[in-house]
Amino acid sequence: MSEVTAPMGGKILDIKVKPGDSVNEGDEVIILEAMKMELPVVTNDSGTVKEIKCKIGDAVDAEAVLVEIE
Fold this sequence. Notes:
By secondary structure, this protein is mainly β. The chain is built from no helices and eight strands. It has one domain (2-64): CATH 2.40.50.100.
């Protein structure tokens, strides 16, 4: 299992996947707002989305786990 983590602290603007979705390496899974910029967060692994660990509007810290992929 792999985890997609926040590259920096910010606010979740959009979630592009849901549990059960197939993803490929490089796919956008989350849009994070940090320092007044929209930052796409991508997965480094291919697989199936197991769990979303955040919701739109959440404030997250750097390195927080956002999505689990199996």
